Amino acid sequence: MQDSPFLRACRRLPAARTPVWFMRQAGRSLPEYRRVRADVPMLEACARPDMIVEITLQPVRRHNVDAAIFFSDIVVPLKAIGVDLDIKPGVGPVVAEPIRDAEGVKRLRDLEPDDVDYVTEAVGELVGELGDRPLIGFAGAPFTLASYLIEGGPSKNHERTKAMMYGEPELWGELMRRLSAITLAFLRTQIDAGASAVQLFDSWAGALSAEDYRASVLPHSAWIFDRLADADVPRIHFGVGTGELLSLLSEAGADVVGVDWRVPLDRAAQRVQPGTALQGNLDPATLFAPWEVVAERARDVLARGRAAEGHVFNLGHGVLPATDPDVLTRLTELVHEETAR
């Protein structure tokens, strides 16, 4: 396992080839995923070990990617502790009673391993199925979870979230501390069951200025990464629209920083802290262009990625639902062929 190209790249060690996996590879674009998920609500699928295992393995079988990503959703730990929420198709997570006061924050209890025993079961089975191919565990970062809880669902402006962060810093701090503990417990559960790496998704962090991120978010993400240091697994940090935050995402303690498509990797390498590998960052929309364009742009990402201390090839965000799976397979082959040593 330790010789896997993915783990070696994460640790900034020479690898047999540049490893590749795709965010949201386990789902949406795959016809076999749609068949398995037919008539099964998302959160139910995330709580059934048999479905978790099958969906996680599907892109490994089809694309021959260098790592699997655990099939779940960032709101799973919130659902597990009793938050009344659902994932509505075409909308995303919707919270029945948004949390906007101290009483609401107090209702957020700690996450216990028994709350997500299906995660432990699924990870254990996946590790056996994957053999020497790493499994990446993941969780939503506290700021992104806080935004969903406060806004009640997806938000373009995060106005209620920022209003609490700016106007009620003590309440904000307590909410973030509780969410940090929940996130840490969710990641620990996956690591203890055998995950070889973890990724912290801060999907909405790009809505913040660097000053606000440093003051109100970074300490909590750093707390999580610090308490995972003894697990000796690579820690990946990713957010969308975070070009101005790359140094801070790195400073939080990540071994690998995911870069979206807006910042070229050679520039990103100059922004992150020394000792940080990079992940990314082909624009997902590129996959709808003719193959010659996809190949040219993928080679450009690989060339720029050489400026990083370690490089994991990925998209700059998740696979779009209408993506042709055959293009992803072909892209994986291209990266492997271009970088084989």
How does this model look, in words?
- The chain is an alpha/beta fold and 341 residues long.
- Helix content is 47%, strand content 11%.
- The protein has 16 helices and 9 strands.
- The protein has a 7-stranded parallel beta sheet with strand order 1-4-5-6-7-8-9. A two-stranded antiparallel sheet has the order 2-3.
- Helix 13 links the parallel strand 6 and strand 7.
- Helix 2 (31-37) packs antiparallel against helix 4 (49-63) and helix 4 (49-63) packs parallel to helix 7 (117-130).
- The chain is globular and about 55 Å long.
- The mean pLDDT is 97.
Radius of gyration: 19 Å
**What's the average pLDDT?**
97
Total strands: the figure is 9
Give the SSE order as H and E letters: HHHHEHEEHHEHHHEHHEHEHEHEH
Strand percentage, roughly?
5-15%
- The helix tally amounts to 16
> What structural category do the secondary elements indicate?
alpha/beta
* Unreliable sequence segments: none
Largest sheet: 7 strands, parallel
**Distance N to C terminus:** 19 Å
Helix content: 40-55%
Give descriptors for this structure.
16 helices; seven-stranded parallel sheet; 341 residues; 11% strand
Present the secondary structure layout.
Elements: H1 5-10, H2 31-37, H3 42-45, H4 49-63, E1 68-69, H5 76-80, E2 85-88, E3 92-95, H6 102-106, H7 117-130, E4 135-140, H8 142-151, H9 159-167, H10 169-193, E5 197-201, H11 210-216, H12 218-228, E6 235-238, H13 246-251, E7 256-258, H14 265-271, E8 277-282, H15 291-305, E9 311-315, H16 325-339
Parallel strand pairs: 1-4, 4-5, 5-6, 6-7, 7-8, 8-9
Antiparallel strand pairs: 2-3
Helix pairs in contact: 2-4, 4-7, 7-10, 8-10, 9-10, 10-12, 15-16
